[in-house]
């Protein structure tokens, strides 16, 4: 679906976007076309917000010198940073949830890791470690999860076959319904965060710091963990490569990430 003629682009001051599958292709590359379009709009006064499951350091690594966002909603909404990397808000996994997650990790044969600050930590090695190190550009740290009591853990991440992750999510949510939430960022990646934490919540917090609101925001995404955010903003746009249930749940659908969907929608909407 193309940008609606009924939209007033002058009232859209903020552009929020997921990274993987939205502005980054399967090779974790950002199209120069997308980067140039975002920079043009930033030069016109629009504020650019990254909303990602990645931690801040990993987001910065992959963006490199392509463009400089005005703010970051990282770790699926668990922490928020301003343009210069100052942390604005942070939400950690409850300490009482750690034994539950440790047991779940040992009962399921998938990569299970967590984020503490700028480190990602895994309890036991699996082939998924090599994949995830390549994806993030960061080396993992092997450490017993039992030793993490008292640490500020931003999120846990499970990487493996979808059917195993579905079973894992059910176990987690049944074991700690008031402590944890879990979302898929990809059919092979399950994100576990503190209850109430999401990209929507993180974006809303971020916008308050920037002096804006969801009603002034356009957002792009492709996965389950983007859906609440896409449905809460003024203009929610699903990528053409998103699952069909994501596309049917939001007002707008653009081209796929491989066809520079973010750039194409923004160019039509803002007439650039």
Look up the CATH topology of the largest domain. Rossmann fold
- The backbone outline, from C-alpha atoms, is globular
Tally of discrete structural domains: 2
Gyration radius from CA atoms, angstroms: 18 Å
**Beta-strand residue percentage:** 15-25%
The major beta sheet can be summarized as: 8 strands, mixed
What CATH first level of the largest domain would be assigned?
Answer: Alpha Beta
Number of helices: 9
Instruction: Output the CATH homologous superfamily of the largest domain.
Output: HAD superfamily/HAD-like
Number of strands: 14
- The CATH architecture of the largest domain can be given as 3-Layer(aba) Sandwich
- The ordered string of helix (H) and strand (E) elements is EHEHEEEHEEHEEHEEHEHEHEH
Strand order of the largest sheet: 5-4-3-2-1-12-13-14
Mean pLDDT: 92
Structure description:
- There is one protein chain.
- The chain is of the alpha/beta class and 272 residues long.
- It has 2 domains: 9-90 and 198-270, 3-Layer(aba) Sandwich (Rossmann fold), CATH 3.40.50.1000; 95-194, Hypothetical Protein, Haloacid Dehalogenase-like Hydrolase, Chain: A, domain 2 (2-Layer Sandwich).
- 32% of the residues lie in helices and 24% in strands.
- The chain has an 8-stranded mixed β-sheet.
- Helix 1 runs parallel beside helix 9 and helix 6 (199-210) packs across helix 7.
- The radius of gyration is 18 Å and the shape is globular.
- The model has no long low-confidence stretch (mean pLDDT 92).
């Amino acid at each position: 679906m193309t940008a609606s003629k009924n939209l007033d682009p002058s009232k859209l001051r903020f552009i929020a976007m997921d990274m993987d599958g939205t502005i980054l292709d399967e090779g974790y590359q950002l199209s120069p076309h997308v980067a140039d379009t975002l920079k043009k709009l930033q030069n016109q006064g629009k504020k650019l917000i990254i909303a990602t499951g990645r931690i801040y350091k990993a987001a910065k690594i992959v963006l490199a010198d392509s463009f400089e966002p005005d703010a970051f909603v990282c770790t699926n909404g668990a922490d928020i940073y301003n343009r210069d990397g100052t942390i604005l808000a942070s939400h950690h996994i409850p300490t009482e949830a750690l034994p539950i997650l440790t047991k779940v990790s040992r009962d399921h044969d998938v990569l299970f890791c967590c984020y503490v600050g700028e480190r990602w930590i895994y309890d036991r090695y699996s082939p998924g470690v090599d994949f995830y190190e390549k994806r993030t550009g960061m080396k993992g740290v092997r450490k017993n999860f039992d030793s993490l009591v008292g640490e500020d853990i931003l999120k846990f991440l499970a990487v493996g076959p979808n059917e195993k992750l579905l079973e894992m999510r059910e176990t987690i949510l049944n074991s700690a319904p008031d402590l944890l939430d879990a979302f898929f960022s990809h059919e092979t990646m399950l994100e576990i965060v503190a209850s109430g934490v999401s990209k929507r919540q993180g974006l809303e917090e971020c916008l308050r710091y920037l002096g804006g609101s969801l009603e002034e925001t356009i957002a792009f995404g492709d996965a389950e963990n983007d859906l609440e955010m896409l449905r809460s903003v003024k203009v929610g746009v699903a990528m053409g490569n998103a699952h069909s249930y994501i596309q049917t749940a939001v007002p707008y659908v653009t081209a796929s990430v491989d066809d520079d969907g973010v750039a194409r929608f923004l160019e039509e909407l803002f007439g650039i």
